[in-house]
Amino acid sequence: MCTLIVKTGRPLTLMGVRDEHTDRPWEGPGEHWPEYPGVIGGLDLKAGGTWLAVHPAARRAAALLNGRGRAAPETARISRGDLALRAVTTGGMPRVPLAGYDPFHLVLAEPSGVRLFSWDGVRLATAELDEGVSMVVNTGLDPASERVAGFLPRFESSADWRELITGEPSDDPGALIVRHELPDGRVFASLSVMTVELDPGGVTYEFTDLTADPDR
């Protein structure tokens, strides 16, 4: 995932935009992992993990974004896709050897608050997200990001976040919904949007497949 917007309060709201190579296989949300009963998320068919996990019974969600920093050794690299599953199940930062993971940002959300765990390949940093609306991108809580500068004020003032994900994809570096034609012929694009609401009384999870044909 490349963008996560968080709004604290009741309900606590998350909106995640997943950008990925269009030829990477995946499935929509479901209970795909017998070892994590009751956990819902989209499935990365290549590595087996997920970018956003929701545990309705625990009133908890965890989102994973790629980070920036020192890559893990190729011979020891572990897919980051299990981190959201572990976090949403245990309610904390997974107790795993981090040296095998490439840099990441892991957001763990509960009605009581939101924590951000950021691993840069050397050091793990932990932060509590402020009250109000926050925006996490691949460079973290980064006010210098063109995407954050352009969209955070709009999310703060909008009563309906869905209106901000409409429109044609763009290759502009500040765009929220993207499509990039790469030199090798592959395409990197926004594939889906997930909206989760958490409060003590329940959980809602809305999934929008941006690759679906609207005329079908």
CATH superfamily: Penicillin V Acylase, Chain A
% residues in beta strands: 35-45%
Number of helices: 2
Estimate the global geometry from the Cα principal axes: globular
Category from helices, strands and their pairing: mainly beta
User: How many independent structural domains?
Assistant: 1
Order of helices and strands: EEEEEEHEEEEHEEE
Question: What Rg do the Cα atoms give?
Answer: 16 Å
Kindly report the average pLDDT value: 94
Helix content: under 10%
For this entry, what is the oligomeric state of its chains?
single chain
- What is the CATH domain class? Alpha Beta
Low-confidence stretches: none
Q: State the end-to-end distance.
A: 26 Å
- Looking at the overall shape, the CATH architecture is 4-Layer Sandwich
Biggest sheet statistics = 7 strands, antiparallel
Strand order of the largest sheet: 3-4-5-6-7-8-9
Instruction: Report the strand count.
Output: 13
The CATH topology: Penicillin V Acylase, Chain A
Task: From the structure above, extract its key features.
mainly beta; Penicillin V Acylase, Chain A; 2 helices; 6-stranded antiparallel β-sheet; 7-stranded antiparallel β-sheet; 39% strand; 13 strands; 216 residues
Topology:
Elements (H helix, E strand, L loop, with lengths): L2 E5 L4 E10 L4 E5 L9 E5 L7 E4 L4 E7 L16 H8 L13 E7 L2 E7 L4 E5 L4 E5 L8 H12 L21 E3 L5 E13 L2 E8 L7
Antiparallel strand pairs: 1-2, 1-10, 2-12, 3-4, 4-5, 5-6, 6-7, 7-8, 8-9, 11-12, 12-13
